[in-house]
Amino acid sequence: MPIDKTKITKEMLEKAAKCKTADELIALAKSEGVDLTKNEAVAYLEELQNVELDEKALDKVAGGGCYPDCPKDYCFEN
Asked: How far apart are the first and last CA of the chain?
């Protein structure tokens, strides 16, 4: 039975991303009231490992962006 992704919270995804094995993910899912098969757990772990950040998220991770009084010649946003 497919997982209803609308019921998955950000916190649940953060916990799931920390799982190293399918068994860990299955145990976590069970504690959250979600039933996962071994194949589903493996597939979700692969999906979590292959997440790509969009340009805006990459800028935030890399420290991009400017502070409020950033001089125009240093700020790429102006």
From this structure: 49
